């Protein structure tokens, strides 16, 4: 079980956004949250989107539900696009590409008169006509009990002459399925059986993908460990010179389909520092795919909507991806990553994957990128930073006392292409064809010995069989991860400083004389009129002169208006005098001490010089006349004490203006407000 102390992932990024013009809606917000939150993402919000996706899938039941190349998939793409565009917060792109769509006819394998339970491999070639009386052969290996060595069939040299024209049996492990089929093809094999090496789930079928078509490749199927091991025993027991004989038929057809990934990126945030979240949108033709993977897709939609409603623009750009053609070999995500180009790829700093979050016999699983629960398989690349990404989830679950377990970080989902290209990754997973253990049942409930998703790739993968309890746990965790990677936290504002115009007290002054002794006469009768508001109205701006590098940092200029009526709304107006920055207005609520606190900072670090100049500040609040003040943003080295002058006054706004005024307006964001973290308790 993962229960850890809190250690946040530090995301380093310039916090800014350049826009082509002033947009009041996008300007609204504060200087950033002081604490991370789940953004209010709930299981109910996820289920609302899942119902829509499920309805689309079931309405196309006769056309393959939401599988590759179906009308149901295209309609699901349209729903995702419409939902995102309605927020106004994202640039949405439909990425089209072509993919081979494979359908199967008869698939039958009979060895020594016994029919085997087989599963066709994705991207396999078929048989032009049934193959009969094939000898059954093994790779060359001295010890078949270790599920290693030559029996893995990773190279043509793992076979001898017996493989020529034979059906060969190869164990899963070490190299990819495609490499095994290619090696057997190079050795002259007529067909291939791949068998599972998972002895803990001996009856689990092997759903293999070759990754891509292999020219003139040997037709390939997969079998469970038990089927493969029984066949291995029979082959080894066969008399020398009298091999087992097999009949092998695999009918398949390829068609080319156009399909689409949907990519959405926040308009706000640093677009050179992209944090990415993804889930595959396609399903299998056998069922509506509510859990696999309507659940993950719906969770991304709910999180995107919640992010769009935050009071603060994101510091780091958040990019969501809904992948096509995952079920036929991770094609959509692989296509996306391979077509980014080196410059764009370097901007993607992390990837989080959500493939199934509502399994009926669920576990709360994190992709175990630190290998603490499940050893990292051989050959799997784990980019630096992946363990810290997993820590976002484990720390979140630790805070709410939610047990969780690490799951295989094996690259068997859409994060594969990202880690292969050095992008750190993690994610969440509620389980598929794994078997629930007693310990898992103690932590999460459910039935020991059953699959984590008893409806996996079945017609019964309907919304009625999705675990709402599981979705309720996963939904806020995903929202929390989005918020964590979107925002750089700011320090909580302190109380306003004392009025800088007040003269300091000289510690060498002698103490004052005591007051005269009290008189016996009573004071005058009190008047009927109330006394003035005891809260003195003042406007404190700290600092009044700030170098531009500090102004585009996390803190900027702090503004505190004292003497405002408590619990009323104060409005700050910042009026730049340099002709480049638009006037900005923001509100805050005066606290119990009658103080309204704001913060002003520049957001576009790459255009820092455009902020140089004078800024007039006005705060209008109940309790008296508007309060006014100003501050100056100066070039680096022009602050107080800079240069030979030591205490020269800062440059004025007019002196700081460049000769050419940019036509593009930059947004000035302000108002530091404390945002409480909303944490769900499981």
Explain how this protein is built.
By secondary structure, the chain is an alpha/beta fold. It has three domains: 1-31 and 491-498 and 532-682, Macroglobulin (MG2) domain (Immunoglobulin-like), CATH 2.60.40.1930; 36-100 and 256-486, 3-Layer(aba) Sandwich (Aminopeptidase); 113-243, Glucose Oxidase, domain 1 (3-Layer(bba) Sandwich), CATH 3.50.30. The chain has helices spanning 24-27, 43-59, 71-87, 177-186, 225-237, 290-308, 331-338, 342-345, 386-399, 416-420, 438-444, 468-486, 548-551, 653-656, and strands at 90-111, 114-115, 119-120, 131-137, 167-171, 191-195, 220-223, 245-266, 270-280, 316-323, 348-354, 365-367, 405-407, 425-429, 538-542, 545-547, 557-562, 569-576, 584-589, 595-602, 613-620, 627-634, 668-670. Strands 1, 2, 3, 4, 5, 6, 7, 8, 9, 10, 11, 12, 13 and 14 form a 14-stranded mixed beta sheet that branches. It comes from Brevibacterium aurantiacum. Pfam families: PA, Peptidase_M28. Residues 518-533 have a biased composition (Acidic residues). Residues 1-27 form the signal peptide.
Rg (C-alpha, Å): 33 Å
Count of folded domains: 3
Structural class: alpha/beta
Helix content: 10-25%
Task: Give the termini distance in whole angstroms.
Answer: 15 Å
Task: Give the tally of β-strands.
Answer: 23
The CATH topology name of the largest domain reads Aminopeptidase
Global geometry: elongated
Task: Give the averaged pLDDT, no decimals.
Answer: 84
CATH superfamily of the largest domain: Zn peptidases
What's the architecture of the largest domain, going by CATH? 3-Layer(aba) Sandwich
Secondary structure tally, helices: 14
The first-level CATH class name of the largest domain: Alpha Beta
């Amino acid at each position: 079980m993962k229960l850890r102390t809190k250690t946040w992932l530090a995301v380093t990024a310039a916090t800014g956004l350049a826009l082509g013009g002033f947009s009041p809606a996008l300007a609204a917000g504060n200087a950033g949250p002081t604490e991370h939150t789940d953004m209010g993402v709930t299981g109910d919000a996820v289920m609302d989107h899942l119902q829509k996706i499920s309805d689309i899938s079931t309405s196309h039941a006769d056309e393959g539900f939401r599988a590759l190349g179906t009308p149901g998939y295209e309609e699901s793409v349209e729903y995702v696009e419409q939902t995102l565009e309605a927020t106004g917060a994202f640039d949405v792109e439909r990425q089209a590409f072509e993919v081979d769509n494979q359908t199967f006819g008869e698939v039958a394998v009979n060895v020594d008169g016994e029919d085997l339970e087989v599963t066709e491999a994705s991207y396999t070639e078929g048989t032009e006509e049934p193959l009969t009386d094939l000898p059954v052969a093994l790779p060359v290996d001295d010890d078949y009990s270790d599920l290693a060595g030559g029996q893995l069939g990773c190279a043509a040299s793992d076979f001898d002459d017996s493989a020529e024209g034979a059906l060969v049996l190869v164990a899963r492990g070490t190299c990819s399925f495609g490499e095994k089929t290619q090696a057997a093809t190079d050795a002259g094999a007529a067909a291939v059986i791949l068998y599972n090496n998972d002895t803990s789930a001996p009856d689990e079928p092997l759903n293999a993908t070759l990754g891509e078509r292999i020219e003139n490749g040997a037709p390939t199927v997969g079998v469970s460990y038990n089927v493969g091991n029984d066949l291995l025993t029979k082959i080894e027991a066969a008399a020398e010179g009298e091999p087992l004989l097999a009949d092998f038929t695999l009918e398949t057809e390829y068609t080319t389909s156009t399909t689409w990934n949907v990519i959405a990126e926040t308009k706000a945030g640093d677009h050179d520092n992209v944090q990415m979240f993804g889930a595959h949108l396609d399903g299998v033709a056998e069922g509506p795919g509510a859990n696999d993977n309507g659940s993950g897709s719906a969770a991304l939609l709910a999180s995107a909507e919640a992010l769009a409603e935050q009071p603060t623009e994101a510091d780091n750009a958040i990019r969501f991806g809904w992948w096509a053609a995952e079920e036929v070999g991770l094609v959509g995500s692989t296509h996306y990553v391979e077509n980014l180009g080196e410059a764009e790829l370097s901007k993607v700093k992390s990837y989080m994957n959500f493939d199934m979050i509502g399994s009926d016999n669920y576990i709360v699983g994190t992709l175990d990128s630190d290998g603490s629960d499940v050893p990292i398989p051989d050959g799997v690349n784990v980019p630096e930073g992946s363990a810290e990404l997993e820590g976002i989830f484990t720390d979140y679950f630790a805070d709410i006392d939610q047990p969780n377990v690490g799951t295989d970080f094996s690259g068997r989902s859409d994060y594969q292409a990202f880690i292969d290209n050095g992008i750190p990754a993690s994610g969440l997973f509620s389980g598929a064809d794994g078997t629930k253990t007693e310990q898992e049942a103690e932590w999460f409930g459910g039935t020991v010995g059953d699959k984590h998703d008893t409806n996996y790739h079945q017609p019964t993968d309907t919304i009625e069989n999705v675990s709402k309890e599981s979705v309720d746990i996963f939904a806020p965790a995903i929202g929390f991860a989005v918020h964590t990677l979107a925002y750089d936290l700011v320090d909580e504002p302190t109380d306003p400083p004392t009025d800088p115009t007040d003269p300091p007290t000289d510690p060498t002054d002698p103490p004052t004389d005591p007051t005269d002794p009290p008189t016996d006469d009573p004071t005058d009768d009190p008047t009927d009129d109330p006394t003035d508001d005891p809260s003195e109205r003042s406007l404190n701006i700290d600092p009044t002169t700030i170098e531009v590098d500090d102004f585009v940092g996390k803190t900027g200029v702090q503004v505190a208006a004292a003497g405002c009526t408590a619990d009323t709304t104060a409005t700050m107006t910042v009026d730049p005098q340099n002709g480049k920055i638009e006037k900005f207005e923001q509100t805050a609520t005066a606290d119990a001490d009658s103080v309204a606190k704001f913060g002003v900072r520049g957001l576009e670090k790459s255009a820092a010089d455009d902020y140089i100049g004078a800024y007039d500040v006005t705060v209008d609040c109940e309790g008296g006349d508007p309060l006014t003040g100003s501050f100056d943003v100066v070039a680096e080295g022009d602050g107080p004490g800079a240069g030979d002058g030591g205490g020269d006054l800062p440059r004025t706004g007019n002196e700081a203006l460049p000769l050419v005024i940019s036509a593009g307006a930059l947004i000035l964001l302000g108002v530091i407000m404390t945002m409480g973290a909303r944490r769900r308790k499981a």
